[in-house]
Amino acid sequence: MAGSEYERLGVDVQKKGIEAFKDARTGLYQHAFCTIHPYPGRPGYGFVHHADGAGSKSVQNYLNWKETGDFKAFEGIAQDTLAMNIGDVFCVGRPEFLSFIDYVAINRLPVPKAEVLQILAREYAGLFEMLRGFGIDVVFAGGETADLPDQVRTLDSVGAVFADYKLADIITGEDIRAGDAIIGISSGGQAKYEKRPAGAIMSNGLTLARHCLMREEHGEKYPEILQRGKRYTGSFCVTDRVEGIEGTIGEEITRPTRLFAPIFKGLVEEFGTAVHGIVYNTGGGHTKCLRVGKGILYVKDSLPDPPMIFRLVQQHGNVSWEEMHEDFNMGVGADLQVDPGAAGEVMDYVWEEFGVASSRIGSCESSEDGANRARLITRYGTFDYPR
Fold first, then answer.
1. Nearest Cα to 161, choosing from 81, 265, 266?
2. Is 5-385 a domain of CATH 3.90.650.10?
3. Would you give the DSSP letter of residue 83?
4. DSSP string of 277-305?
């Protein structure tokens, strides 16, 4: 990653330094997507604690509001925050219990705090109601709001989720094997259960996307959206429109992250042990698969064409395609590693039940050195990860 566009903006997609916490973390399954802990006093049960948020995407929400004056620009932040949490916990199976808390840090000097909190509360209520329709009962255990004008220049929305499971039902990642089919599920478009289309970009890579796409004048006009010493270098205003994108550039960047939990839950219930792994392609994009399984070479040789938003970032930011596939999901929000005999039925099920596109994007092989590897064979080149 040395010299990457993302790193120059101060973001480390490889998260170097977290190895310092290695000895502090203990888990039952070393090849699962999430760290699963034994549940004290409940033999046969485990739990996951996970925290994540909307990231710098909320800065674009803020910019959209400043440029349009429409408070609807803040819609989607709650869904981003919730999706980035419960998407992960459903990658290891179907929880028996779920609770969620949120934390919103706001600089109330530039940000309309009351209006933003009203939008977040209304959106969370609607999302929890929708999830209950799929048998996903999320206990909203409250949260915290903090006014931090010295620390936060606009706003930051994060959450944390607690989930418990029967250990016998955990997707450990240890069943991923050579010959498995890799099914990619689209991050964009509108699912049957969504009120509006989800954003292909989800909630990762937004620092890079914003700086590559938005015009320098935006940063000059609103210095609170810029890092010190950095500037926007793009060609677009918030309200610009581009062929191949429905709506404005500002709207496209902030479309909400899909809640994959109903899809993941349905797949586990419908196909059981034929689903060997579920990978939510958040931070790390198409290299996220490296965290699951053991000794697997993930060969992705049939990736769909990336949606227009990614092509714009690559072109206007002069970002290498190798880095693009590491920073972004490129339109594939989740990977499934499944029994090859079930691949066709899995894709049919995702479309017929949820109205979400999917395709077979590759297969699993055994890696030569026993470490997890990923090889992407694309029209833009062949890329091997880790780099």
1. 81
2. yes
3. H
4. EEEE--TTGGGGGGGSSSSEEEEE--PPP
pLDDT of residue 24: 47
Helix axes 261-271, 77-89, angle to 10 degrees: 30
Q: Measuring CA to CA, which residue among 278, 251, 380 is closest to residue 337?
A: 278
Question: For position 43, what pLDDT does the model report?
Answer: 95
User: Domains of the chain: which residue ranges?
Assistant: 5-385
Q: Is the pLDDT confidence value at 4 over 70?
A: no
Nearest in space to 283 (alpha carbons), one of 358, 206, 378: 206
Question: Beta partners for 234?
Answer: 215
pLDDT tens profile 66-95: 999 999 999 999 999 999 999 999 999 999
Which pLDDT value is given to residue 23? 53
Q: What is the pLDDT of residues 265-318, one digit of tens each?
A: 999 999 999 999 999 999 999 999 999 999 999 999 999 999 999 999 999 999
d(CA 72, CA 115): 10
Whether cis (ω within 30° of 0) applies to the bond prior to 95 is: no
Residue 207 to residue 222: CA distance in whole angstroms: 16
338 backbone dihedrals φ, ψ, rounded to 5°: -130, 160
